[in-house]
Q: What sequence folds into this?
């Protein structure tokens, strides 16, 4: 009979609610420290598939302020919340550009909320490579809801669908964003559209236009995206926003889509992890392995093109 592997002390501490241990492990994950692997491996069976709410949209639409109010609503419902804010960062140095953009208006010592800002490290799609693992660690740590705020470039923030169970696309009325969503691809990933800053002129029109676009769309797997209006200055619409997020989560369960969506996300994650590992090893070998270095020399000398070189590397046996 095979004995179960012992749970690492750090994993046990996270399960017991130790926030310092949680912070240390998240830092290890973000830094790609190999010592995090046995910890995340031990925590994985202890995740419960909690709602992961992705909040995305162009810069300046008020995502951070909206999340602040949404967290307040969840705490009023006695839900604990883990928040991951993915900041834009340099693809060269990996340094964060904006820093901690969410200023949580919570009572001091509120242990029901945990916030972490992470640099995207140049990842396309506005999602850091470590974000998926971090959301699972927050799940294992016992949070009822996990919120992920993305970089918010407005053009590539569609990767949030590979992390979130419910994707909220935030727009504002005076930038014409309801049209831009079609160009950016955000229309295809939204489970809930949120027209924020609803106190501004044109908000009602923006909501009606989005509702019409949704009506004309095909939807996804039987779900028709909802359109809500919110304001963070008055404030208003936060209850409706959360109700529609919950409605989508209930739809996933009632329709049987949740396991299918989880399978799709995990398949994408496995492929990305393999691609990253193979790419890292190959990049190193192109400079160190004499046969591969010769292939790179041919490309540099313009004797063959990069696609041909890639095809040769993809063939069985040594490159020719």
A:
């Amino acid at each position: 009979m095979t004995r179960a592997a012992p749970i690492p002390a750090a994993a046990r501490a996270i399960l017991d609610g130790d926030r310092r241990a949680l912070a240390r492990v998240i830092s290890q994950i973000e830094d790609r420290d190999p010592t995090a692997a046995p910890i995340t491996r031990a925590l994985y069976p202890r995740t419960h598939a909690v709602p992961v709410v992705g909040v995305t949209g162009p810069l300046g639409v008020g995502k951070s302020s909206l999340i602040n109010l949404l967290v307040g609503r969840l705490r009023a419902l006695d839900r604990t919340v883990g928040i991951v804010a993915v900041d834009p960062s340099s693809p060269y140095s990996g340094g964060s550009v904006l820093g901690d953009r969410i200023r949580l208006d919570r009572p001091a010592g509120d242990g029901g909320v945990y916030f972490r800002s992470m640099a995207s490290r140049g990842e396309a799609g506005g999602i850091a490579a470590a974000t998926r693992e971090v959301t699972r660690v927050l799940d294992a740590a016992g949070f009822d809801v996990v919120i992920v705020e993305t970089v918010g470039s407005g053009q590539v923030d569609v990767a949030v669908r590979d992390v979130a169970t419910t994707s909220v696309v935030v727009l504002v009325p005076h930038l014409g964003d309801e049209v831009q969503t079609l160009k950016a691809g955000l229309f295809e990933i939204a489970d809930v559209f949120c027209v924020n800053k609803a106190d501004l002129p044109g908000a009602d029109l923006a909501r009606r236009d989005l509702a019409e676009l949704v009506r004309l769309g095909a939807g996804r797997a039987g779900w028709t995206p909802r359109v809500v209006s919110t304001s963070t200055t008055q404030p208003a619409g936060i209850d409706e926003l959360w109700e529609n997020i919950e409605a989508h989560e209930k739809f996933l369960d009632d329709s049987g889509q949740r396991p299918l969506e989880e399978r799709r996300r995990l398949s994408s994650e496995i492929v990305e992890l393999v691609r990253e590992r193979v790419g890292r090893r190959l990049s190193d070998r192109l400079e160190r392995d004499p046969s591969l270095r010769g292939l790179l020399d041919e490309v540099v000398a313009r004797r063959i093109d990069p696609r041909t070189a890639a095809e040769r590397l993809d063939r069985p046996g040594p490159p020719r």
